[in-house]
Amino acid sequence: MKKEQQGKRKKMGGSPKARPRKTRGVAVPDPSAENAGPIVVELPAPISPGDRREAEQFVKVLDANRQISRSAGPLPPGATHQVETDATGSRRLKRKRFSAL
């Protein structure tokens, strides 16, 4: 490489600054037997009725596959999401880890 080109190299590996996505919390029914009220799921705004139905189905599938932990502390084996209670008392679904199936 020529000396005059050494300082003009493109930087690699850096990610572009992402815009923060606008999200909105949507309450969906908790499908568990110990139903303690709705679970708030974050969805990209604006939200359509189809998005709400999809979120409800997503929570049902996670629950059916035992991937939701409703207790504080470390996740049990197989769980990928945890229900956390925020400062306002809302129960929010948070992804904690990924699962390779």
Walk me through this protein's architecture:
The protein is an alpha+beta fold and 101 residues long. The protein has one domain. Helix content is 16%, strand content 24%. The strands form 2 sheets. Strands 3-4-5 form a 3-stranded mixed beta sheet. Strands 1-2 form a two-stranded antiparallel sheet. A hairpin with a 5-residue loop joins strand 4 and strand 5. It is globular and about 60 Å long. The mean pLDDT is 85.
Measured by DSSP, the beta-strand proportion falls in 15-25%
Number of strands: 5
Portion of residues within helices: 10-25%
Largest sheet: 3 strands, mixed
Tally of structural domains: 1
| Run of helices and strands | EEHEEE
Strand order of the largest sheet: 3-4-5
Query: In DSSP terms, counting alpha (H) and pi (I) runs of 4 or more, how many helices?
Result: 1
Radius of gyration: 20 Å
